[in-house]
Amino acid sequence: MMKFLKMNYTLLLAAVFCLGLTACGGGNSSNNSDDTTAGDDWRNSAEIVGSGSITYDGEGFIDVLVTMDDNYAYFYLDEPVQELHDSVSFPMTISDATEYLDGDVSFDDINGDGASDVSFGFVYAPGDSISLVWIWDQEKGYVFQEDMSVTTRRSGDLSEYLGLWKYADETLWLDIYDDETWAFFNEKEKIIARGTLSVDETGITLYFDDGDEVLQLDQSVSGDLLDSEKLTSLFPVADIQSSLENNN
Q1: In 50, 66, 169, 226, which residue has its Cα 20 to 30 A from 105's Cα atom?
Q2: Main-chain dihedrals φ then ψ at residue 81, nearest 5 degrees
Q3: Which residues contact 91 (CB under 8 A, 6 or more apart)?
Q4: How far apart are CA 217 and CA 231, in angstroms?
Q5: Quick one: CA dihedral 19, 21, 23, 29, positive or negative?
Q6: Which backbone phi and psi does 243 adopt, to 5 degrees?
Q7: pLDDT tens digits, 160-185
Q8: Where does the pLDDT of residue 124 fall: very low under 50, low under 70, confident under 90, or very high at 90 and above?
Q9: Could you give the C-alpha distances from 126 to 93, 151, 155, in angstroms and in order?
Q10: What SS3 class is residue 31?
Q11: For residue 102, is it left (φ>0), alpha (ψ between -120 and 50) or beta?
């Protein structure tokens, strides 16, 4: 009887010991940090379109990864846990933005103030592209720069410009006609200048009938026209309205 009890006790200890070894081996396997990170790391499944380093003082740098949809570019910290650091809003909806993105997103310091700015572009076909720029502002964050952004067309298409345009800060209107002529009007609908025009990949050039004056109007990424001499924009309108009509 004593031999039987001793034998069973020995077998029981052996079984417990084997179970202990198995448990220890399983613990080491489940605590493997690489396996856990690989399963939970957002970077393994996200569509990352770019990467870079952002600085606000030219010294400390923050590594970010870029994702994008048709309206925004998002800058996430380059860490296993997905944490949004910043973003920029497109001036228009860009369909299939990730498909047409041209290369990487740049965080170079464009204006030389020591802080990272943002620039990137989209190419739809050779000679048909959009380049977008945002400058860092300490109070406002990234501010879109329409005057530094560029739309390029493969060939000029006059149909994009036909019709009436108003200067944003003046009572001045530009009417563009399909026979490649144009006229400037004041608020009394009186013609104050006229001429011919040509269209190229960036916008239109106005040639004045009464002299050698030439005025270049570039198409902005949002579709308005930019007058680089007056440093203002023109936007399409339905008709000429005087200041009195606007006040009423």
Answers
A1: 226
A2: -90, 125
A3: 132, 144, 146, 149, 221, 222
A4: 11
A5: negative
A6: -65, -30
A7: 899 999 999 899 999 999 999 999 99
A8: confident
A9: 21, 13, 11
A10: coil
A11: beta
User: What is the share, in percent, of the chain residues with pLDDT greater than 90?
Assistant: 61
- Residue 48 predicted with pLDDT over 50: yes
Looking at the chain, the whole-number percentage of residues with pLDDT higher than 70 is 80
User: Is 175 in contact with 239 (CB distance < 8 Å)?
Assistant: no
CA distances from 31 to 17, 19, 35, 40, 219 (A): 21, 18, 8, 14, 58
**CB distance 58 to 136 below 8 Å:** no
Residue with tokens 């299939």: 96
Q: For residue 214, give the H/E element and its range.
A: strand 214-219
Whether the Cβ atoms of residue 137 and residue 161 lie closer than 8 Å to each other = no
pTM here is 0.59
CA angle 149, 227, 178 (to 5 degrees): 100
Sheet holding 50-55, edge to edge: 50-55, 61-68, 72-77, 84-89
Which parts of 76-188 fold into alpha helices (H)? 97-100
For the chain, helix, strand, coil in percent to 5 are 20, 40, 40
Distance CA 203, CA 219 (A): 5
Assign 112 to helix, strand or coil.
coil
Report the C-alpha gap between 102 and 86 in whole angstroms.
21
- 179-217 pLDDT per residue, tens: 999 999 999 999 999 999 999 878 899 999 988 889 999
